[in-house]
Write a structure and sequence with these properties.
Shape: globular
Largest sheet: 10 strands, mixed
Helix content: 25-40%
Number of domains: 2
Order of helices and strands: EHEHEHEHEEHEHEHEHE
Structural class: alpha/beta
CATH superfamily of the largest domain: HUPs
Length: 268
């Protein structure tokens, strides 16, 4: 039975690339349905209670801003549907981004979000954290201009701690039969002692192992090695320094989220 891919819309200009990435993921997942979520921030979430008073006038202004943003996202989605003829179910809700993404994300099979940028609003960062750490679902982070046909050459960042396996399993189930897989595994010891993780052989995947030394520059080195392998997609676990809801991303996760120029499938 086909599943559901949930795309979290952020800004209108990013809608075409985000929906294109979500559509490709839906195809890899066996023809999953595509939902697009617009979360309108409630007025009380846009003020600092200790410093501001939410007057009736200010509440109306804040609602008008979110109304215009939602309308612009809906218009961009409609334009993309007309040009591609790919059906999308638009879901428009009001609430805290963290709560709405967590609740809706648990009902989906995959979640797709845009890669956060330096100027990304805090609500978008909360949505990303909720998707990664509160849904239990694989999350695809789409760069501003992802390739529309990714999933043929996949790089896997491997750490033997469970998080990588959580991300790898959904990927293995939807890989094209001719896909090439490159496993990039970090080690603090002798790289010659590394062996390909058993999970790939158990799923009949003839992967290539790329040992790489751990270190403070592992994030940039990982991305460079993925490009050297010709990867059009990166798969990795999502790591945090703490298990708290408002988790602080680990260094490698933080680097990849900020710099990856290819789609990244993550799962915590």
């Amino acid at each position: 039975m086909p599943g559901v891919v949930l795309a979290i819309l952020d800004v209108p200009e990013g809608v075409p690339a985000l929906l294109a990435a979500a559509t490709r993921l839906a195809a890899l997942a066996g023809g999953a349905a595509l939902d697009a979520l617009v979360v309108r921030a409630p007025p009380e979430a846009s003020i600092v209670p200790s410093e501001q008073v939410l007057t009736v006038r200010r509440e109306a202004e804040l609602r008008a801003v979110e109304e215009q943003r939602a309308l612009a996202l809906a218009a961009a989605t409609d334009a993309w549907v007309r040009s591609t003829r790919h059906p999308v179910r638009l879901i428009d809700v009001e609430g805290l981004a963290r709560d709405c993404v967590a609740a809706r994300g648990r009902d989906a099979d995959f979640i797709v979000l845009p890669r956060p940028g330096a100027r990304t609003a805090e609500t978008a960062h909360r949505a990303l954290r909720a998707a990664l750490f509160e849904t239990g679902r694989p999350v695809l982070i789409a760069p501003p201009h992802p390739a529309e046909d990714f999933g043929h050459t996949v790089a896997v960042a491997w750490r033997d701690d469970g998080h990588a396996a959580n991300a790898v399993l959904p990927m293995l189930r939807m890989l094209p039969t001719d896909a090439r897989v490159h496993v990039i595994e970090g080690t603090g010891g002798d790289p010659a002692g590394l062996r390909l993780p058993r999970i790939f052989a158990e799923h009949g995947v003839d992967a290539v192992l790329h040992p790489m030394r751990d270190g403070s520059g592992f994030g940039p080195a990982l991305l460079e090695r993925a490009h050297q392998a010709g990867a059009d997609m990166l798969v990795m676990g999502a790591y945090a320094h703490t298990p708290l809801r408002e988790a602080v991303f680990g260094g490698v996760t933080r680097y990849i989220l900020a710099h990856a120029d290819l789609p990244v499938l993550m799962r915590h």
